[in-house]
């Protein structure tokens, strides 16, 4: 078919039309998905489950007139304020990067093509299309040159759709091959993809085991607080016979430490700081939980071109099959390059070498696609010309094919220029292929490629090179970089279709060439079937389906609009070497959140245990007629107990370096340390209090001394839990631990602090017993930690 569309070219809307349509509200005003609004951020950080619990408890304490004991209410301000500030900073970073990395459609206005932001497209705009472009609004095709569109992301239909004149195109689909233009018929929320997004039927966020685990823990704690609070109230009011004010203060003191108030805050801060740090490296995180997914990655699937090698190419050599063909070959190459509306890197290199097109008239076109590996143009009397992969177009046993393979083994990219006996758009194309020349292109290996591969090897992350190029050429590049198995590439045309057999092949090999788009997708699925967390990097339209299916899709900023749209991470600097920083940031965020979770949940466990022990003592005292035991602490005591054992250390640890790969099982792993540690802290604190408690007739001094004794025991063991969590030690961790110990020593040493916080360690006997029980608790925590580590190591080996 003729592809000369200039004669019937639609000049598009005028600027006056655009202004009128905008005024009528007929523009593509779909909100960006990069980040939520400031209003949503404020609402999300203020109206939380934890703030609600602390708010109710604060009202109860303030109703008793004890303002000092309401200090924990500052946590509501801190939780909300710090979370809001950090998330707004992250939002600004995301929004700035989203504008830089935005997919900008090519729109024709007043006869001139121009790139505009997608939200500026208006009803009736003429949008031009080329390979890799994503369709931003619904429309009707008005020009087509073998236009093929993939709608699988919307409809699930795997086969590409050939679009003829007047055919409908849907937003969210993308161009696989060919070119054309369409007129926008539905924009904004009326467009197909916008409706799907609102229904959430196709567009889903990355799963976050971390957030779901924390939510599960918070729900469980909420349910525990109800019976614990009831028991404490019963004990304080009825069994112990206390007045309302001390009874309520005791209840609040028991319930406040059950709430892991800083856990959600630290999680928000860690995610937000991660986004900001990645933003400084020109990395756009399109879905926040993707940071967590990156921390779990153990396989990275990467393309050769644009990943291990530079994007650009240059013509290294032209090998003529027949020396007499020099003029016709040069003319054909110049025409092919000049007539391609959206040339890829290979065709651009040819065009730079042969800039003077002879002016041949095109009669048929066959655009390049990753599935068939060739493209072509027919020029009537000047012949039918093909440009593509030698091992696809030629008999493998031919001399030209062997020459191409030998050249490719040096890491060069080899294309075949050939002529055909039938037009390139014939159903039987390519027909009888006559080789005319080998086009040898040179790609420069990235200077940072070896360093990047070495990093992944050191982190036990496998790298699989999956490329559409010739397998031998891919293997030569991978082998030169020292990638294990790179010198033994596999031709994907020989791979089995069966998923299990494909997974076996992927387990034993690292480098694959001639991989079709559907095979890339199948490879990702096969790796996932073996329990791997897969990151897929890509920049071409042939990578879209694999990017969508991978646990984490990573697109280059210079990649096609379709790849950037489906990826969770976009490397705007186009550097594969940025990926180690991205993975490292993910590991730092998730590893540190897990670390500080141990601190917060240890506090929750010992607080729950203490509350139940005190509450049960009140119930049992009524049955067996003995004096009940009131709750040992005031709210101010539990506030200062968390200052240097959890609050400040958790903030520091949440931002520290951490390279350990995240694994699934967050809740069980955290509970494995938090539960035994919390039980030890709670039990030892209860025993320490029992030994010095002077009964219901105790003086105020004796009550203060008993509370101080219990608090010393609690602080000692909680500091050791911090020491366990902080391992392995470094200079700054030792400084942190020393500062925490020093902070408590000052609190107990300064007279004003002792008076303000009602501390009295002057009873030598009581303080000595606190130190002894604290020492026993420290030993028990260490034993529990070592047993847990041994069991975890055995499980990991299994």
From TrEMBL:
CDD domains: P-type_ATPase
Compartment(s) where it occurs, according to its Swiss-Prot or TrEMBL record: Cell membrane
PROSITE patterns reported in the protein's UniProt record: ATPASE_E1_E2
Keywords for the protein's UniProt record, in alphabetical order: Membrane, Translocase, Transmembrane, Transmembrane helix
SUPFAM superfamilies linked: Calcium ATPase, transduction domain A (SSF81653), Calcium ATPase, transmembrane domain M (SSF81665), HAD-like (SSF56784)
Domain P-type ATPase A: 103-199
A Pfam family per the record: Hydrolase
Topology class, membrane: Multi-pass membrane protein
Transmembrane regions: 46-64, 70-88, 217-234, 254-276, 605-626, 638-658, 670-694, 706-725, 732-752, 764-784
UniProt cross-references to Gene3D superfamilies, sorted A to Z: Calcium-transporting ATPase, cytoplasmic domain N, Calcium-transporting ATPase, cytoplasmic transduction domain A, Calcium-transporting ATPase, transmembrane domain, HAD superfamily/HAD-like
Protein name from the UniProt record: Cation-translocating P-type ATPase
